[in-house]
Amino acid sequence: MNKKRTDFAQKLISAPYIVWSAIFIIVPLLMVAYYAFTDKSGAFTLDNISGLSRYAKTFGMSLLYAAEATVISLIIAYPLAYFMSNMKAGAQRMMSMLIMLPMWMNFLIRTYSWITILAKTGIINTLLSKIGIGPVQLINTPGAVVLGMVYNYLPYMVLPIYTVMVKIDKSLLEAADDLGSSPISRLRRVIFPMTVPGIISGITMVFVPSVSTFYISQKLGGGKTMLIGDVIEMQFQSSYNYNLGAAISLVLMVLILISLAVMNRFDDSEEGGILI
Amino acid sequence: MTNENIVELKNITVTFDGEKILDRINLAIKDKEFVTLLGPSGCGKTTTLRVIAGFVSPTEGDILFDGKAVNHLPPHKRQVNTIFQRYALFPHLNVFENIAFGLRVKKVPEAEIKKQVTDMLKLVNLSGYEKRNIAKLSGGQQQRVAIARAIINRPKVLLLDEPLAALDLKLRKDMQVELKNIQKSLGITFIFVTHDQEEALSMSDTVVVMNEGVIQQIGTPQDIYNEPKNAFVADFIGESNILDGVMKEDFLTSFSGREFTCLDSGFARNERVDIVVRPEDVDIVPEKDAMLLGEVTSVTFLGVHYEIIVDIGGFKWMIQTTDEQKVGDKVGLYIEPDAIHVMKKSKYSGMYGDYSTFSDEIEHLSDLEEDEN
Lengths: 276, 373
Prior knowledge:
The complex is a heterodimer. Chain A is mainly α. Chain A has a single domain (54-268), classed as MetI-like fold, CATH 1.10.3720. Chain A is 76% helix and 0% strand. Chain A has twelve helices and no strands. Chain A has helices spanning 2-36, 47-50, 56-85, 89-100, 107-118, 123-130, 142-166, 170-178, 183-212, 215-221, 228-237, 242-268. In chain A, helix 3 packs across helix 7. The longest helix of chain A is centred in the first third of the chain and has 35 residues, at 2-36. Chain A is globular and about 70 Å long. Chain B is of the alpha+beta class. Chain B is built from nine helices and 20 strands. Chain B has helices spanning 45-53, 95-105, 110-123, 139-151, 169-186, 197-203, 221-226, 231-236, 360-372, and strands at 5-16, 19-30, 34-38, 60-65, 68-69, 80-83, 157-161, 189-194, 206-211, 214-219, 241-249, 252-255, 258-261, 271-277, 282-285, 292-301, 306-312, 315-321, 330-335, 340-344. Chain B has a six-stranded mixed sheet, with helices on both faces. A five-stranded antiparallel sheet of chain B has the order 13-12-11-14-20. Chain B has a five-stranded antiparallel sheet with strand order 15-19-16-17-18, with no helix packed on it. In chain B, strand 4 (60-65) and strand 5 form a beta hairpin. Chain B starts with a strand and ends with a helix. At the A-B interface, helix 8 and helix 9 of A face strand 6 and helix 2 of B.
């Protein structure tokens, strides 16, 4: 009796969320799938998908850039998270604030400001020309695009790793010391394996938005580096080819899912050697 | 030289944020000795252990291993291993890998690791548990893994930080025996921290009683129990009636309004002293043979004996007796000379040893509190 009633109450409470996810997650996904497999007249076709091979290079480039940005973010974020987790409580709060602070500003504006830093007449080149070097081509290069990704998504790498790291019981680190581990061996045998879940979510949260970004590549790549996100945006904004745009989005989603599935396998393995 | 001190603490003082945690600790520990640091929570016993392990650097003083100062040697280079209070087993490693950890760090060949870990598992009765997940083990099993993980490294000194506190009574008794056997068979020096006085008395060669960061007494369990140095030790170890008294002359003391012959000497004439009489050393006798007369105010049956509280001139004595008494009974007490222990006055005088506020409940509550710390 009572159990039935609580069951019903639970269903009632969860109903708004179910309706929400149905309307804003499931339905849009179905719409993407619908557009991807139909032509302009609404008839079923596989042409959108089969025609994607001409974008293979763009797909490849996008995955490569995103992977580069992810690796660089990890290399920067891991030591940062490590040092942060060893700071005093007050300093730790301060650091996480500082890391999140840029995120309070609009993403577009942050990316735009890099143009003024990297441009031919930008801050860096002005300084360089003062000491007789340059101007150096900084903006509109693949490097600038990766830089933009790292800059924008770095907090998403630092925070999950840091969160896992501060939760490691200090007595485990003492136990490792006690059993003869040098600081390096302790990092390798205890801290790193225990932070793998944080690394995995960090990688996910940097890789996924990086692979589908279009704004960063447009502003910092100057249209020279066309990423798959740009292609999708073009289909919706200028070519009005919703069907092709949906098809590319669908394939991109599948590629991301595959990448994540591969990565999550590392989570279960005993000692992770991800990416390194 | 088997008599040489393996660990020595010289004038160790530890200060945290201006607060003295340890105050001039001097301690010499012999090879193959079982030493227990005993005291209430916050007395500095765990800090002392952490100083030896290297996790805490003393503000002043020296730590010597085999006569050599190791103050600046980091924990991983010290020849000691620790069994942590909550075991601190690595959750990402299985039983085998936890135990193998120390050997892997030392890059011991794989075949040798396998052999040693297998032997170790046999020693702690965990054969067949190699692949088990740490989180799926019971408290007692985790305890055994922690022991195996430490002693596989053949440390000269094993530090144990309240290792049995989390186990239930029955298991704790079994582990006490097992630990003692392991210590004897491997010939390792054990430095054991506990707040459980029974555990300390039953397991140790030497007991170090600590309070407020100061060593109160060092001695064999018998010394500590029979010849406590001050009111704190007398009260902390077992039950004690501690009375204010005067040493009239050698072998003659006075308390509770009359004189008693005792076995103590070496005090000044008429020196004020603390008198300890253990509850089990007081005999209940007919009134005509009695040295002291009192009235029973409380009786508790504890199975082996009764614990009765007797009011003698306002001071409440605890007496353990096998004869049943009733509340309100007038009883006569008789105290043998060897049941009286005389102590110098200390800062703890008058703080302990009167059972006027005694209640089992309060005792029980304070035990729980200590367990949580």
